[in-house]
Amino acid sequence: MNGEESSFFAEIERKKWRGIRIMYLVLFLNSTGFSILLPSMWPYLQHLDPTVNYSFLGVAAAAYSVGQLVASPLAGKWSTVRGKVTLPLQMVMFIGVLGNLIYALACLLKHISPQLALWCVVVGRVLSGAGAGCIAIARSYHGTVTTLDERTGVVSKGSMAQSVGFILGPGLSLMTSLLHSGFSIGHMEFSQYTIPAYLSVFMIVTNMVIVAIWFDEDVGPADLVVNSMVEQSEIATLRVKWTGVVICNLMAFISMLSFTVLETLNTPIIQAELGLSQSQAVKWSSIFLTATSVFSFLTFALATPLGRRFGERKMMGVAYTLSALAYVFFYPFGPGYIPKTEWTPLSNVNVTYTNQTEVAGCGWQNNWCYTQKQLNIYQFIGANAVLLFSYPLAVVLLLSRISKILGPHPQGTVMGILTAVGSLARAIGPAIFSSLFEALGPPAVTFCPCTMYFQ
Predict the structure, then answer these.
(1) Which of 18, 140, 316, 319 is deepest in the core (most CB within 10 A)?
(2) Does the pLDDT of residue 347 top 60, yes or no?
(3) What is the pTM for the complete model shown?
């Protein structure tokens, strides 16, 4: 290879790694924008309509995943057919901007029709989920432009970027929770409930600008053979082990379905079990999610060396076993019972500040609030600690495994399907678990995920 060719390949390699790092940023900002809304979503629904129940929380939480379920395979397929990812990436992110704006502006309808405001939140969540189709595109790009030796490390770092986003998001939500009611311009509110959505819009727009200015798609399988220098004619003859792909998708579905418990019910559990107001629940949920996400980030960093040391399959078995055991600790053993709060059958509110009312404690309409033992806070933290070690470990190893099964083949469509499978689980999970939580309380959080893991 002469000097001119060497310089050409060095330039292509430089562009490749710049593109990989930009996709890290896409994953990071997307997960930050997603997680910043989690602690305040349930109190926001209560703010729009104090009579809202846990089942509607499940609908609102699942709506995001419905949008992602539809958009991810379409975005992945679009990027594969085009052979380029920029246009599909920009389009799904633009949809995400619209979704977060609709979510924030739902407060404008609160004074007209609380029910309409709630469904406006659902529409915003669906579009925000469609914007998360960028995850499938970023993952497929990472799988396409890396060699087999590079892939586990790149996938792991991509997952770490998402984990950092999950750390930062609740931290930002904690900061916005200090604003309480904030201020209003007419009926447009800038409060602890809406500012997170506006921040999410800012992050997505930042993503779009960075991709437009610095992302270069000159590198790709059509221009440079990157997968261990396999010739294109050889790529066409290599077979994908589709049984392995199906198994990985099934395992991803089970992992994500059970993890929706933490995503959806973290704030309601804290509010009910500790007898907190909406603002207090947002604050403590944000603190808790930030702390546990730091722990999760450390697990992402350990996933690659643990997989190499003990083998990816063995570590996946360990991860799934620990996840099942974690849910046992969600069972409320006491001591003591759920704190009683002052409520009336029509309001269940506490007056807190500026003559506004907030829903507090465990919902009066749920019979288990009167009879069930309290979930010990240290037990709750321990259960989440185990789950946030095992879940990220399983995710990194699954993504690495499926990417290696695909080998040098274009990965957009399959990664889109994998993301859609996770979205399907997150669409079903909130509806199931929020309804079970409303009917049975925390014991439902214990038995259902355990049953799935031990199948």
Answers:
(1) 140
(2) no
(3) 0.68
Q: How far apart are CA 147 and CA 256, in angstroms?
A: 28
Distance CA 364, CA 386 (A): 31
Cα–Cα distance measured from residue 75 to residue 447, given in angstroms and rounded to the nearest whole number:
36
CA distance 250 to 246: 6
Neighbours of 14 (CB within 10 A): 12
Report how far residue 418's alpha carbon sits from residue 72's, in angstroms, rounded to the nearest whole number.
9
Grade residue 412 by pLDDT with cuts at 50, 70 and 90. Answer: low
Spatial distance between the Cα atoms of 104 and 195, rounded to a whole number of angstroms: 8
pLDDT value, residue 230: 45
Cα separation, 25 vs 28, in Å, equals 5
| Eight-class DSSP state of 372 | P
Instruction: Return mean pLDDT, the chain.
Output: 77
When pLDDT is cut at 50, 70 and 90, the band that residue 229 belongs to is very low
CA dist 92 and 248 (Å) reads 25
- Express as a percent the part of the chain with pLDDT over 70: 79
Sign of the C-alpha dihedral computed for residues 252, 254, 257 and 263 taken in this order: negative
Helix (H, G, I), strand (E, B) or coil at 239: coil
